[in-house]
Amino acid sequence: MRNFQSSLVILLVLFLSSCNQTVGTYEENNELITEIEIMMYESFPQQVNVVVRGQFTYSCTKIDDIIETQSGNTLMLTITTSRETNKVCSPVNQAFVEVIPLNVVGLRAGIYNVKVNNLSESFELDVDNFVQ
User: Fold this and answer.
1) Number of domains forming the structure of the chain
2) How far apart are CA 132 and CA 122, in angstroms?
3) Backbone conformation region of residue 99, classed left if phi is above 0, alpha if psi is from -120 to 50, else beta
4) Does residue 5 fall inside a structural domain?
Protein backbone atom coordinates (compact mmCIF):
# COMPACT_ATOMS: atom_id res chain seq x y z
CA MET A 1 0.00 0.00 0.00
CA ARG A 2 2.89 2.33 0.81
CA ASN A 3 4.37 1.83 -2.67
CA PHE A 4 0.99 2.63 -4.19
CA GLN A 5 0.76 5.89 -2.20
CA SER A 6 4.32 6.85 -3.14
CA SER A 7 3.59 6.15 -6.80
CA LEU A 8 0.40 8.16 -6.60
CA VAL A 9 2.24 11.13 -5.09
CA ILE A 10 4.93 10.95 -7.78
CA LEU A 11 2.30 10.79 -10.54
CA LEU A 12 0.45 13.74 -9.02
CA VAL A 13 3.65 15.82 -8.86
CA LEU A 14 4.49 14.95 -12.47
CA PHE A 15 0.97 15.81 -13.61
CA LEU A 16 0.96 19.15 -11.81
CA SER A 17 4.39 20.08 -13.11
CA SER A 18 3.31 19.27 -16.68
CA CYS A 19 0.27 21.53 -16.24
CA ASN A 20 2.41 24.41 -15.07
CA GLN A 21 1.56 27.43 -17.18
CA THR A 22 4.55 29.46 -18.19
CA VAL A 23 4.45 33.18 -18.61
CA GLY A 24 5.40 34.16 -22.15
CA THR A 25 7.66 36.97 -23.15
CA TYR A 26 5.64 39.99 -24.13
CA GLU A 27 6.38 42.23 -27.03
CA GLU A 28 4.66 45.08 -28.77
CA ASN A 29 4.83 44.35 -32.46
CA ASN A 30 4.09 47.25 -34.81
CA GLU A 31 4.91 45.23 -37.91
CA LEU A 32 2.16 42.66 -37.51
CA ILE A 33 -0.77 44.90 -38.58
CA THR A 34 -1.19 45.06 -42.37
CA GLU A 35 -4.66 46.59 -42.77
CA ILE A 36 -7.48 48.16 -40.76
CA GLU A 37 -11.08 48.74 -41.80
CA ILE A 38 -13.78 50.73 -40.00
CA MET A 39 -17.24 49.12 -39.85
CA MET A 40 -20.18 51.27 -38.72
CA TYR A 41 -23.55 49.78 -37.85
CA GLU A 42 -26.89 51.49 -38.27
CA SER A 43 -27.99 51.55 -34.67
CA PHE A 44 -28.39 54.01 -31.86
CA PRO A 45 -26.21 54.50 -30.09
CA GLN A 46 -23.88 54.12 -33.07
CA GLN A 47 -21.61 51.06 -32.94
CA VAL A 48 -18.21 51.10 -34.60
CA ASN A 49 -15.83 48.17 -35.02
CA VAL A 50 -12.30 48.07 -36.35
CA VAL A 51 -11.40 45.02 -38.41
CA VAL A 52 -7.68 44.44 -38.02
CA ARG A 53 -5.81 42.19 -40.45
CA GLY A 54 -2.22 41.17 -40.04
CA GLN A 55 0.43 38.48 -40.07
CA PHE A 56 1.99 36.57 -37.23
CA THR A 57 5.67 35.93 -37.90
CA TYR A 58 6.01 32.94 -35.52
CA SER A 59 3.75 29.92 -35.13
CA CYS A 60 3.24 30.35 -31.38
CA THR A 61 2.51 34.10 -31.41
CA LYS A 62 -0.91 35.25 -30.26
CA ILE A 63 -2.64 38.53 -29.50
CA ASP A 64 -2.03 39.23 -25.84
CA ASP A 65 -3.72 42.55 -25.16
CA ILE A 66 -5.63 45.33 -26.89
CA ILE A 67 -5.50 48.70 -25.16
CA GLU A 68 -7.80 51.54 -26.25
CA THR A 69 -7.01 55.15 -25.37
CA GLN A 70 -8.40 58.45 -26.59
CA SER A 71 -6.80 61.84 -27.11
CA GLY A 72 -9.16 64.44 -28.52
CA ASN A 73 -10.70 63.04 -31.70
CA THR A 74 -8.13 60.25 -31.98
CA LEU A 75 -8.89 56.74 -30.74
CA MET A 76 -5.72 54.68 -30.37
CA LEU A 77 -5.56 50.90 -30.20
CA THR A 78 -2.29 49.29 -29.18
CA ILE A 79 -2.14 45.59 -29.91
CA THR A 80 0.53 43.55 -28.18
CA THR A 81 1.48 39.94 -28.82
CA SER A 82 3.04 37.24 -26.68
CA ARG A 83 4.99 34.04 -27.22
CA GLU A 84 5.64 31.27 -24.73
CA THR A 85 9.29 31.19 -23.76
CA ASN A 86 9.47 27.41 -23.43
CA LYS A 87 8.26 26.63 -26.98
CA VAL A 88 10.23 26.38 -30.17
CA CYS A 89 8.44 28.67 -32.61
CA SER A 90 8.87 28.23 -36.31
CA PRO A 91 8.84 31.26 -38.61
CA VAL A 92 5.53 31.57 -40.49
CA ASN A 93 3.36 34.10 -42.27
CA GLN A 94 0.08 33.24 -40.55
CA ALA A 95 -2.78 35.61 -41.36
CA PHE A 96 -5.18 36.71 -38.65
CA VAL A 97 -8.31 38.87 -38.42
CA GLU A 98 -9.44 40.54 -35.19
CA VAL A 99 -12.70 42.50 -34.86
CA ILE A 100 -12.46 45.14 -32.13
CA PRO A 101 -15.47 47.15 -30.94
CA LEU A 102 -14.58 50.78 -30.27
CA ASN A 103 -15.82 52.63 -27.21
CA VAL A 104 -17.77 55.37 -29.03
CA VAL A 105 -20.79 55.83 -26.75
CA GLY A 106 -20.73 59.35 -25.37
CA LEU A 107 -18.80 60.87 -28.28
CA ARG A 108 -20.05 64.04 -29.96
CA ALA A 109 -20.78 64.25 -33.68
CA GLY A 110 -17.60 64.72 -35.67
CA ILE A 111 -14.74 63.09 -37.52
CA TYR A 112 -12.61 60.64 -35.54
CA ASN A 113 -9.23 59.20 -36.41
CA VAL A 114 -8.49 55.60 -35.39
CA LYS A 115 -4.85 54.54 -35.03
CA VAL A 116 -3.97 50.88 -34.70
CA ASN A 117 -0.27 50.53 -34.03
CA ASN A 118 1.22 52.03 -37.22
CA LEU A 119 -1.95 52.42 -39.36
CA SER A 120 -4.80 54.93 -39.24
CA GLU A 121 -8.31 55.35 -40.67
CA SER A 122 -11.15 57.82 -40.07
CA PHE A 123 -14.89 57.67 -39.50
CA GLU A 124 -17.61 60.26 -38.92
CA LEU A 125 -20.42 60.34 -36.39
CA ASP A 126 -23.29 62.35 -37.89
CA VAL A 127 -24.98 62.96 -34.51
CA ASP A 128 -23.94 62.97 -30.87
CA ASN A 129 -23.65 59.36 -29.70
CA PHE A 130 -25.19 59.70 -26.24
CA VAL A 131 -27.38 57.09 -24.60
CA GLN A 132 -30.66 58.69 -23.56
Assistant:
1) 1
2) 26
3) beta
4) no
